[in-house]
Amino acid sequence: MKNIITKSIITKDIAIRNNGNRVAIIPIFVPHAGCPHDCVFCNQRRITAHSEASTLEEIHKIVDRNLTTIHAKNHAKEDIHTEIAFFGGSFTAIDVAEQEQYLGIAKELKAVGKIDGIRISTRPDCIDDVVIARLKSYDVDLVELGAQSFDDDVLIASNRGHSTSDVACAMKRLKAAGFQTGLQLMVGLPGDTKAKSIESARRAAALSPDVARIYPVVVLKDTALADQMCDGRYIPWAELEMVDTVKEMYKILTESGANVIRVGLKSTDNIRNDSESVLSDYHPAFFELVLSEIALETMIRVFDAQNRDE
Predict the structure, then answer these.
(1) CB 167 within 8 A of CB 125
(2) Hey, which end of the chain has fewer CB within 10 Å, N or C?
């Protein structure tokens, strides 16, 4: 159990609505655990800003600590739907015995009413009938898939190791089994373009995910992408281009009914304070930049309409 890494934080997902209730997610990070490929962009230890291992017993303490914070911050009368989430690695690809230990704790916490839901994050090519049966038996509610792109050339250049058809197949299986689903997309990967990213959003929307996340590529130190950038094989997108592209993707996904629960890589102590860890543009409030552009578009549209009516 040495690979599991936990992070005792309350994410911004507390503002997400789930059947009328707010949602608070207690994340348990499992960096690189189960990952069969080293994607060119990935350095999970920098992303999670955590390197100490945590025992299974400590998960109970982490949940209790987070629940105390959640309840202290929730002064309103409305209910909060609290979920434990296994993020960071490819959860369904780790050792089955380890999966069952983690899920067993989560199921126990859910059974006694400490949490309301369980979600995991994994790869689309690590979903099959056996995996689905296991997740159902442990009462998992939502499965997020790291699709990243719906362009096979981009996936190959990023060393993802799966295809776009794997994503569609996994989503179909998960939905048929009754799971809520999520898709994660990345923007600005090797070989990516604005047109490809927007098409990825359209194809993701067509699969009707319940939730979605959009991550602009941030080049982190100690990754293959950093090496490609240093020798000129990869050129990061400019911030304005990234914002403009993500803005269109966000509109496509939200208009399709998907709940976009994160836009932009979450700020951590490592990324925020260690300038050497990030080699490309990084904005800790990237989502606000996107929302500002959308708000500006809306104001211009309203202003133009008023002028036409005069």
Answers:
(1) no
(2) C
The CA-based dihedral angle spanning residues 85, 88, 90, 91, taken in that order and rounded to the nearest 10 degrees = -30
Whether domain 12-309 has CATH 3.20.20.70: the reply is yes
Q: Note whether 183 and 189 are within 8 A (CB).
A: no
d(CA 65, CA 59): 10
Amino acid in position 31? P
Quick one: tokens of 247?
A: 């803005």
Place of tokens 């999966």: 99
> Residue 167 CB: number of other CB atoms within 10 A?
25
- Return the ∠ at Cα 200 (arms to 195 and 203), rounded to 5°: 125
Structure confidence by residue, pLDDT tens digits, 100-140: 999 999 999 999 999 999 999 999 999 999 999 999 999 99
Question: Over the stretch 161-173, which tens digit does the pLDDT of each residue have?
Answer: 999 999 999 999 9
Say what the pTM is.
0.85
Q: Which of 180, 215, 181, 221 is nearest to 201 (CA)?
A: 215
Place of tokens 């993500």: 246
74/58 Cα distance (integer angstroms): 24
Task: Name every residue whose Cβ is closer than 8 Å to that of residue 218 and which is 6 or more positions away in sequence.
Answer: 41, 265, 271, 278, 280, 281, 282
Burial of residue 68, with CB atoms counted within 10 A of its CB: 0-12 exposed, 13-18 middle, 19 or more buried: exposed
Return contacts of 221-228, CB within 8 angstroms, 24+ apart. Answer: 221/43, 221/46, 221/276, 221/277, 221/278, 221/279, 222/43, 222/46, 223/40, 223/41, 223/42, 223/43, 224/38, 224/40, 224/41, 224/159, 225/40, 225/41, 225/190, 226/279, 228/40, 228/190
Long-range CB contacts for residues 102-105, cutoff 8 Å, separation at least 24 = 102/4, 102/28, 102/56, 102/59, 103/134, 103/135, 103/138, 103/140, 104/138, 105/56, 105/59, 105/60
